[in-house]
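Recap from last week: sequence in, structure out.
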Amino acid sequence: VKKALKSQEVYENFLRCLVLYTEETLHATDIVHIVVHFIGKFPELFAWFKNYVGYKDAVPTDQGRKNRVGELEINYASCKRYGASYRAHPPNYIPPKCMGRTELCKQVLNDTWRSYPCWSEDSTFSGAKKTQYEEYINKCDDERFELDVVIETNLACIKQLEAVQKKMGKLTPDEVARFRLDNKLGGTSEVNGRKAIKRIYGDKHGGIIDGLKKSPQAVIPIVLKRLKSKDEEWCEARRQFSKIWSEQCKKYHLKSLDHQSVTFKQTDIKSIRPKNLVTEIETLYDERMEQVTDHNKTITGPHITITHKDHHILEDARALIIHHLRRQSHLQNEEKAKVKLFLNGFLQDFFFAPRGDVSDDDHDTDEDSSEEDDETRSRGSRASSNKGGTRRSSRKADRPAKSVKLTPGDSDAPDAYNLIFTNDQWYAFLRQHQILCDRLFQIYTYNTAVVEQELKDRKNRKEPIAQAIKMRQPNPMPVEHYYTHFLSLVKDLLDCNVEPAVYEDKLREMFGVNSYIAFTLDKLITNIVRQSHTLATDTMCNQIKTSYLKQRALGGAGGSLSTQNSRVSVETNYLKDSEVLLSEHNLYKIYFYKQGSNLTIELLDGEQTDETETEEAARTEEAGRNTATNEKGESMDTSAS
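Predicted structure tokens:
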């Protein structure tokens, strides 16, 4: 072959192909297809080579290529599928040979399935979508990894050249003079040494490598000195950067786990506005009307059903609203007193909850003491039932005579309910109030779960990984105080005593990724205070309240479900009076059932005002039965029909 090829360079390329074949990297068919370009002009020599490697002349070349499918010729889309991302090799596919596999490798390693990710360009799913805080964490990891690779590669080159230098120290002067290095520079790889030298010497690395090959005894000491100097420099840089990376990881660790807060804050601020809340129920109303038109049947019942799962949450919500109300400098004391009377008196009566302090005194001199009282009530909302009964009885004793109360028989009945016909302003306030109570209850539920888990695993639980690797500091506050501290943080946020970013970080430390629902509580409470001021001062809203209290005295605005039939006529009159009063506004029928604490809201059709007494009675009684059924199971939102 050497004589036939004549060129030494071509002959060396031919030998390289033979090396790949002897290492079983190439199959017999592949080596024949490659060698044909070298000795195909010499038929006898080529025939001998094919016979030597066991290539069968009976199989044409094209047929042989078809029998062995190449990697680039496989259409994996038509291959056998396993899950969403794996395809099987075709039966005639021969995988490349691997010289380093042991019997264990042959047993456990995969040679059948190939990763084949598939996705549509029109798909909105993004499996690798990251938040900006995840990008910060990943950037720190990438920088740390790159610097580690640089230092380790440089250190490997130092050890490699030191080994060569040590080897030359054992040679005679004549042997040292004849000593030369190959492309691996005394190591096992041609890449690592070249990369390390190129990183230091840049464009001049080619001359340095040639010097190492030809005169290693002269060049190695110079290169080693430079490599060791760079090693010290880079190790010091890694120590300095480690402090920065540690600070960034601590700062962004909890934020990187939170994928919902950014989108939630953008959408929630819009969704809690009164206009959007009204649009929501109007959409439900229109959908129901379309169903009635399409199916030619009557659909009755509330459009929205809300469950207040814990009366203590009502106390916490009222305390936060009143706390922010006192800080409204643009409101006069009389306006604050009206709003406070509405929140502590009327609203609490409507929800069958203990009244707050309905005193009209709301001067600046009393703000501190009132704030302490509210905070005490909020923190004491988890106290024992005996203490709660004493506190409620003292509040009832402080009620002024001018406030209208439910009759004892109605309020004490376990199946009591309240009925009010309202406009958009009242509906928006009740929805915002419900959203606030629901989020406070969720945070309280998370805190309860954390407390239970802490008490269960306090002795056996290991240190969290994030704390072990110094990515976050342990929270010194006992988990039992998380909810109380959360309420204090909300007040500090409302008073602008804490930055929103700090507030969010503290909530993440206590409640993890579930805390995002509380990030907009300040905006929500501000909207509630604004809406409650409208209810307390607006003329139409006051007329609705007066009409309700009047009907309450007549028995047309609620009572016991067991005696509801006797109040059908007065409730119907209440409806007709409300239709006249709100003839130019949306009319809402709102029930609150004591049994189950369910609040139902229905947007009424102003054109259909002649409901019969029997239909009204049947709807109310069935709603009461559904409420009683809900109390036996878990509290959940249901649709009463």
